[in-house]
Amino acid sequence: MDFDLTQEQRQILEYGDLVAQKFDRKYWMDCADKHVFPEALYQQVADDGFVGTMVPEEYGGAGQGMVEMHLFLEGLSNNGIPLLNLVVGAAMSLGFIAKYGSEAQKQRYLPDACKGKTRFCFAITEPDAGTNTIRTATMATRRGNRFALNGQKTFITDADGADHALVVARTTPHGETAKKTDGFTLFVVDMKAKGLQKQYIPVSIPAPETQWQLFFDDVDLGPEDIVGEIDKGFGILFKSLNPERILVGSICCGLGRYALNRAVDYVKERKVFNNVPIGAYQGLQHPLASARTDVEMASLMTLKAAWFFDEGGEAGEFANMAKLAAADAGIKAVDTAVQCHGGNGFTREYGIFDIYPFVRLLKTAPLNREMILNYIGEHVMGLPRSY
Ligand SMILES: Cc1cc2nc3c(=O)[nH]c(=O)nc-3n(C[C@H](O)[C@H](O)[C@H](O)COP(=O)(O)OP(=O)(O)OC[C@H]3O[C@@H](n4cnc5c(N)ncnc54)[C@H](O)[C@@H]3O)c2cc1C
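Predict the joint structure of the above. Result:
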C-alpha cells in the first residue's frame, strides 16, 4: 500500500499554486462581484490541459482519471479559486460524454470543450421534483424519429455561458414503466435552440457562475442528441453522480485549507494581550488543529473515493462519505477561520466570511446531507428506507 502521490500527481495538485499567482482569490472574487465568468482563468486552465483532464487523448483531453481531477480541483481550491463549471461542465458533462457518448458526439463536442472554446452545463433539478429525481417531469415526446422537449429545470449553474446542456428528461412518463428507474434519457441540448428560455436566479453566494431556470417549449431534438440509451439513462446517470460528489469533496477540502491557512497567518501576527500572538492561545489553536484534522481526514476519503472510481469499483459508498465529511470539514474550517479573525473575519477586506456561503452550499447541493446519510444508512449499513 502506498499513500504517496506520484511526481506528476503532486504537480497536478500544485498547479493551483502556480495558476493562482496570476489568477488569485481576488480575481475570482472580482468576477463573483460582477457576475462574470472568469474567462481568462478558464482559458488558462484549458490551455494547460486541465479542462479535459478526464477526456481521452484522442478527443483532445489529458486521458487521466478521477484522482487527477480531484487533485487539480483541490489544488485550485487550496488557493480559494473553486470553479463550479469544472464540476458541472468539465467533469460531469465531458466525463459523461467521454464515457457514454457516441463516437460522433465525442468528435463533435469534446475537442472544442477541452480547448475551452465551448462549455457545458448540467441540468437535472426541477422545481417540483427537487431531490426526488423519479418525479422528473421534463418530457421528450417522440415526434416521428425526433423528440419535442417540454418542461423546466432550476438552479442550472453557468447556463448563460454554456453552449450546451446535458439535460435529464423523461422519454416515458412516470408510472408507465416496468421499473420506476426506467424512462429517463439524457440529451445534449444546444443552449441557443429555439424554444429554450432562461431566467436568472439571484443567490446569496459569491461565485462567478450564475444560476438559471431553464424553460423548454417544444425544443426539437434528434436521435443524435441522445447520450446513452433511450429510457435507460438512470443507471448511467447515477454512476456519474459519484464524480460530482467526489469533486465537491475536493473543493470543500481545498477551501477549508485555504481558510485555515489564512487564519494561521492572521493569528501568528495578531496580538491583543501581553504581546503574545493570539495563535498561542489554545482557545484558538485547538479548534484550528481540530479543523485541520477534519479537513485532512475528509481529503483522504475523497482521494480514496477517486482512486476507487478509477479502479472501476462501485464508488458510491466512499463518494458519499467523502462528500459528507468534506462539506462538514469545510464548514467547520471556515467557521473557525472567521472566529480567529474576530471582527475582521466579517469584512470584505479580509474576505473570510465570503468563503462561508460557498462551502455551506455544498452541504445542500448537489445532494443534501440528509440524502447522503440516507444512502450510507441504506446502502452501506443495510438499514430500511424511510422515505
Ligand atoms: C447554487 C446552486 C447551484 C446548483 N447547481 C445545479 C446544477 O448545475 N444543476 C442541477 O441540476 N441542479 C443544481 N442545483 C440544485 C441542487 O442540486 C438542489 O437544490 C439540491 O439537490 C436540493 O434540491 P431541492 O432544492 O429541490 O431541495 P428539496 O428536494 O426540496 O429538499 C429540501 C430539504 O429537505 C430535506 N430532504 C429532502 N428529501 C429528504 C429525504 N428523503 N430525507 C431527509 N431529508 C430530506 C433536505 O434537507 C433538503 O435540503 C444547484 C443548487 C444551488 C443552490
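Residues 256 and 333 are 5 Å apart (CA to CA).
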